[in-house]
Automatic annotation (TrEMBL):
It comes from the Bacteria. The lineage of its organism: Bacteria, Bacillati, Actinomycetota, Actinomycetes, Kitasatosporales. The keyword Signal applies. Keywords: Signal. This is Peptidase M15. Residues 1-30 form the signal peptide.
Length: 181
C-alpha cells in the first residue's frame, strides 16, 4: 500500500516528500510502460509518462532535492525572456534524466538553460521541454565522455538513447527518457 502524503511528510520531511510526489507517478508509469531502449525518440515520445509537464516551481523543487543547482545570466525565470533560465513546461522525464545523471556520475550538475525562448526550435527542443543546458566541469566532462558512446561531432549517446552535445561552453542535453530512473 502506498503511504499517504501526510505520512511521507512526517517521515521524510517536506522537501523529500515534494520530490517524491513529483516523481512517484512518473516512475510508477515508467515501470509499467517503459519504452524499450531500442525505440526511436519519436516512438518513445508517444508514451504517456513522457508527456507530463512541470511548472517552474515543481522542477526547481525536484532539482533542489537532488542537489542540482541552476543559474540565470539575467537572474530571472521568465520563460519568454532569453536571458532567464526557466523550467516552465519542462518534461518530467527531462527533469528526472538530469537527476539520474547527477546520481550516476556523482558530479555536481549546474543547469544554465531550460525551456526559455532563444534556443533553436524543433520537436526535441528546449521550448518543448526535451533539453537542458549544463555547465562544463572536469567531473561531468569525464563522466559523459567516458561512460557514453561517441557518435561524432562532439556528441555522446547514453545507453538509454539520450544525447549529450558538447557546445563551446556547456553541454546541450536532449532527454528522450529519464535515463533509467
Amino acid at each position: 500500500m502506498r503511504p499517504t502524503r501526510h505520512a511521507l511528510t512526517g517521515l521524510l520531511g517536506a522537501a523529500a516528500a515534494a520530490a517524491l510526489a513529483l516523481t512517484a507517478p512518473v516512475n510508477a508509469q515508467a515501470a509499467q510502460a517503459s519504452p524499450a531502449a531500442s525505440q526511436s525518440p519519436a516512438q518513445a515520445a508517444g508514451s504517456p509518462q513522457l508527456l507530463a509537464k512541470l511548472t517552474h516551481s515543481q522542477a526547481t523543487s525536484l532539482f533542489r532535492s537532488a542537489g542540482i543547482t541552476w543559474t540565470s545570466s539575467g537572474g530571472c525565470s521568465d520563460r519568454n525572456n532569453p536571458t532567464c533560465t526557466s523550467f516552465q513546461g519542462l518534461r518530467s522525464q527531462t527533469a528526472n534524466g538530469a537527476v539520474t545523471l547527477k546520481r550516476a556520475s556523482g558530479c555536481a550538475v549546474r543547469l544554465t538553460g531550460g525551456t526559455e525562448t532563444g534556443h533553436a526550435s524543433g520537436t526535441y527542443s528546449h521550448w518543448n521541454g526535451y533539453k537542458l543546458d549544463m555547465s562544463l566541469s572536469s567531473c561531468l566532462d569525464s563522466y559523459i565522455t567516458g561512460a557514453f558512446t561517441s557518435i561524432g561531432g562532439s556528441k555522446w549517446k547514453s545507453a538509454s538513447g539520450n544525447i549529450y552535445y558538447r557546445e563551446g561552453n556547456h553541454w546541450d542535453v536532449t532527454y528522450y527518457n529519464c535515463g533509467g530512473c
